[in-house]
Design brief:
Helices cover about 25% and strands about 20% of the residues. The protein contains 14 helices and 20 strands. The strands form five sheets. Strands 11, 12, 13, 14, 15, 16, 17 and 18 form an eight-stranded mixed β-sheet that branches. Strands 1-10-9-8 form a four-stranded mixed β-sheet, with no helix packed on it. α7 packs antiparallel against α9 and α13 runs antiparallel to α14.
Length: about 525
């Protein structure tokens, strides 16, 4: 199986100059501004500083010490990745031009760019890849150890060829993982010196920007790196100024007072307000459905051990009612993968459609049922949890709400402390094998221990299969998994990028559909 760039980057107008549409692996071609106009290369202000506010903080700047994916977006200006994703979540080349598994799945071979230099003058090559993976496997506190477990060793075949020898029967998800912090490359000089780059990466990256000032969990300022960058569609700015701003209303106000150039909102009220401002051309807005699916997670215990009770839960929930709760910004969706993904099944029909009478009959047949709905107090799952409780009560359930601190919600569920959970944490990964390992047969156990699903998962993770062959198996996995009714998918919430009239490429930002960002292709007009 080989990765090839398919050139699906969005182009907003035929008149765009070539420099904004060539080579960039994320596309880099869409240049829609707040008023719906487009910009040419001559319009771009190469000295401008983009002012960005974001909800999630950045706790450190070392790619291999990231404890949550909320910090990834701050790292992409400085650190290039082996692979990347475009704005639609498609896997595209980065530092690796292509990748191919051995016919027997024994190794994954990466063909690397030969025109990349780290900011400290070190050459990016296969030896640098090997050094980075060794660092990720062995450094104290590394958060990528598990992600790199499938790599037994790395052979430097030649400067532009790295052969990753794999643990037998594993590794199919690696190209997708390399689009995250796992694939971010650090200079071999930095690795050899053992430099602590958590608060000051210095010249250790090869990305379009370098760090000029950093205050952990508060702010980050980067400036464009000296010299020509290998991707002419990236690094269009003189710099970027990031500020952590948890409150969405404050971020939106910053747009209206010209204190901010670009930010994001995802709650229904803020999206509605932002759309109103966009309709008046006060700001631009690009609305994208989250990959994450809001739903109900269940454990097979107590009354929920009965399949008919879990099915009753599924039948009792009305996705349209939840969508209305979010002012239409949570789009009903009853699958596990977004429609744009090769892993989605376009012919799938969810078996447990909204039917209160069916839910009632199942509860009665079970002799009644109790359920405790856990959710993160104060989060955007609180209102859905209340609506779902009312729906379950109407279907004959003894339904109880269980609000817990958001920091305890997910870890508690994974540890088995909660019977059920209303959550939007189900996030389909770039490669479905990673999704299956985490949510289906992993700690969330959506498969409910079903041996047929486990067997299919093992077959589908064979790296020697074609994408179509794997896709067919994953379609069957999703169908069998959702039939277990351990997870009830409800809807995809909306994430809106909001931006000023000078911002270009705001509709071409990868990772927005996961709630984070990659701003390498964003620019400002003069």
């Amino acid at each position: 199986m080989t990765g090839k760039w398919n050139g699906r980057g969005k182009v907003a107008a035929v008149a765009l100059v070539t420099a904004l549409a060539v080579a960039g692996c994320g596309g880099g071609g869409g240049t829609t501004t707040a008023g719906g106009s487009t910009a040419s290369a001559a319009d771009i202000d190469r000295s401008a500083v983009l002012r960005v506010t974001a909800a999630a903080p950045t706790r450190n700047l070392d790619p291999y010490l990231q404890a949550s994916y909320g910090g990834w977006g701050y790292l992409t200006p400085m650190f290039d990745r082996l692979t990347m994703v475009d704005k639609d979540g498609n896997l595209v080349p980065g530092l690796a031009k292509s990748w191919e598994f051995a016919p027997d799945g024994a190794y994954l071979e990466l063909k690397l760019r030969d025109d990349v230099t780290f900011h400290d003058g070190s050459k990016f090559d296969a030896a640098a890849v090997a050094a980075n993976f060794q660092r990720g496997k062995t450094m104290a506190g590394s958060t990528v150890v598990a992600a790199l477990d499938d790599i037994a060793s790395v052979d430097v075949v030649d400067p532009t060829t790295a052969r990753l020898n794999l643990v037998p029967g594993s590794g199919v998800e690696l190209p997708g993982l390399f689009s995250t912090n796992v694939g971010m490359m650090v200079s071999p000089k930095t690795i050899e010196a053992g430099t602590d780059i958590r608060n000051d990466p210095g010249q250790s990256g090869s990305g379009p920007y370098t760090v000029s000032k950093y205050v952990p969990e508060e702010s980050l300022e980067v400036t464009r790196a000296q010299g020509d960058y290998w991707d002419p569609a990236a690094g269009l700015l003189g710099g970027i100024s990031f500020k952590t701003m948890p409150d969405a209303t404050t971020r939106l106000n910053g747009m209206q007072t010209d204190a901010t150039d670009l930010s994001w909102v995802s709650s229904a009220n803020e999206i509605v307000q932002a759309q109103t401002l966009a309709d008046r051309n006060v700001l631009g807005i690009d609305k994208v459905k989250f990959r994450n699916v809001l739903g109900v997670f269940m454990r097979s215990r107590d009354d929920l051990a009965k399949p008919e009770v879990r099915q009753a839960v599924a039948h009792a929930i009305d996705p349209e009612a939840i969508s209305a709760l979010f002012s239409g910004t949570c789009t009903p969706y009853r699958q596990m993968y977004p429609e744009s993904s090769w892993a989605a099944d376009p012919s799938y029909k969810y078996p447990y459609t909204f039917d209160v009478n069916k839910a009632k009959s199942l509860v009665e047949a079970a002799g009644g049922a109790k359920i405790k709905l856990t959710f993160g107090a104060g989060t955007n799952t609180e209102k859905p949890a209340n609506v779902i409780q009312s729906s379950l009560t109407a279907a004959g359930f003894d339904a109880e709400l269980d609000p817990v601190p958001n920091t305890q919600n997910e870890p508690g569920y994974i540890a088995g402390a909660f019977q059920s959970m209303v959550s939007n944490s189900f996030s389909p990964k770039v490669d479905p094998a990673e999704t299956v390992n985490t949510f289906v047969v992993g700690p969330y156990d959506f498969a409910n221990g079903n041996p047929e699903i486990a067997a299919l998962a093992k077959k589908a993770a064979n790296p020697t299969l074609s994408q179509d062959e794997r896709g067919t198996m994953y379609h069957e996995i999703w169908s069998k998994t959702l039939a277990e009714a351990m997870f009830v998918p409800i809807c995809n919430q909306t994430n809106a990028t909001i931006f000023s009239g000078k911002v270009v490429n705001a509709d071409n930002i990868p990772w927005v559909d996961t709630g984070i960002f990659d701003l390498r292709y964003v620019g400002l007009t003069k």
